[in-house]
Write a structure and sequence with these properties.
The chain has about 375 residues and is mostly helical. Helix content is about 55%, strand content about 0%. Among the domains are: about 60 residues, no CATH class; about 60 residues, no CATH class. The protein has 18 helices and 2 strands. Helix 6 crosses helix 10, helix 10 runs antiparallel to helix 12 and helix 14 crosses helix 17. The N terminus is likely disordered.
Length: about 375
């Protein structure tokens, strides 16, 4: 018995090899289907070589993992990295980590997870338009904030102030995927994905164009969705936004995102770099500076941050003195990294609500607790 399958057989010229194929639909005998199934990864790798830009990263040419593993018959190396990130605990915890607003009263404010999904969507759109490797782009985007602390950037600020060598969430995100996840074994991701995660910040420069796409997508996402949330919270009104920025970038949430994406595609298509045009770059930086001044550092959105700071400082001090209370996957790194780093690892992995609950368990008399 034969069934209909929607996989075109491609010839060496890039055109369908079987002229009986109609819109990619053909009948495939069972024996051929088995061979096709076993070679799906190779077929995908071949499609990458034929269809992607000469400047795109190819999964078959990956620089590899720290610990070699058997290739998958179905997925490319970058697809496997994406799947490992989606299934890890750190990714699920992003749901309960603050983006900007601490404990907002409303269901529509962004969390660290929804921010990550918006970054992935924007990055994939740009990557697809530039014929870059969408799987690599998505893996970097989904993993870029895994090391973020509870309570948004205030948590990062606390750990940066107490650790002798400082703390940066992009560096911590790499530490999560290399050492902390999977019971302390790490996710063993490819070098390209780890490099993209490390260099997703504004001052970073990833080795791949896909990583540079994610860096832009991160800024496009958080500037625009934080404006949306700030207006929803009453911290800003639409009339407060810089008029010259709106004239260049767009006068609504959707138009700004669309225009920024289009500008990057126009400037970068077919080239060995990813960038915005100077007018867009200038006005995006100005809008970002406006958000730091009006929302990120001095607004009612920050009113509760002093309490969060004090809570995290006390938790860090406690676990620094009582490392024996830490979970085993953290304790295993004590000899190599020391108690300061390991205590910070544990704090950084906490969600907002777990940090509050842990603080109450440690420092609030049981009869006073409302949880």
């Amino acid at each position: 018995m034969r069934r209909i399958y929607c996989n075109t057989v491609w010839g060496t010229s890039g055109a369908p090899a079987n002229r009986a194929v109609f819109h990619g639909i053909k009948t495939v005998p069972a024996a051929e289907r088995k061979v096709s199934y076993m070679n799906t990864r190779q077929q995908l790798e071949e499609l990458e070589r034929r269809l992607l830009s000469e400047h795109a990263a190819k999964s078959a040419d990956s620089l590899g993992r720290d610990r070699p593993i058997e290739p998958c018959s179905l997925r490319t190396e970058f697809q496997r990295d994406r799947d490992r990130i989606i299934h890890c605990k750190s990714f699920r915890r992003l749901k309960y980590k603050t983006q900007v607003f601490l404990s907002p009263e409303g269901d529509h404010y962004r969390t660290r997870l929804t921010h990550t999904l918006e970054v992935a969507q924007i990055a994939r759109t740009i990557s697809r338009a530039l014929r870059l490797n969408e799987d690599l782009t998505e893996a970097i985007a989904l993993g870029h904030d895994l090391g973020h602390t509870p309570f948004g950037h205030i948590g990062e600020s606390v750990l940066n102030s107490v650790l002798p060598k400082g703390f940066r969430h992009n560096v911590q995100s790499v530490r999560v995927v290399e050492k902390l996840e999977n019971g302390g074994e790490g996710l063993n991701l490819t070098k390209e994905v780890r490099d993209g995660i490390l260099n997703h910040t504004k001052d970073g420069r990833a080795m791949t164009l896909e990583g540079r796409v994610v860096s832009y997508a991160d800024r496009i996402a958080y500037i625009n969705h934080d404006i949306d949330d700030a207006i929803r919270a009453g911290v800003l009104s639409p009339e407060d936004l810089p008029k010259d920025c709106l004239a260049v970038l767009g006068d609504s949430h959707g138009r700004r995102i669309n225009n920024m994406i289009l500008d990057i595609v126009r400037e970068s298509d077919g080239r060995d770099y990813v960038r915005m045009s100077p007018p867009f770059e200038e006005h995006m930086a100005k809008l970002r500076a406006f958000m730091f001044e009006r929302v990120y550092t001095d607004s009612t959105a920050k009113a509760e941050e002093g309490k969060a700071r004090g809570m995290l400082e006390k938790l860090y001090g406690h676990f620094l003195q009582h490392v024996e209370e830490l979970p085993r996957e953290f304790v295993r790194h004590l000899a190599e990294d020391g108690p300061e780093v390991v205590a910070a690892d544990y704090i950084a992995c906490m969600t907002d609500r777990f940090a509050v609950r842990t603080y109450q368990d440690l420092f609030v008399p049981k009869s006073w607790s409302i949880w």
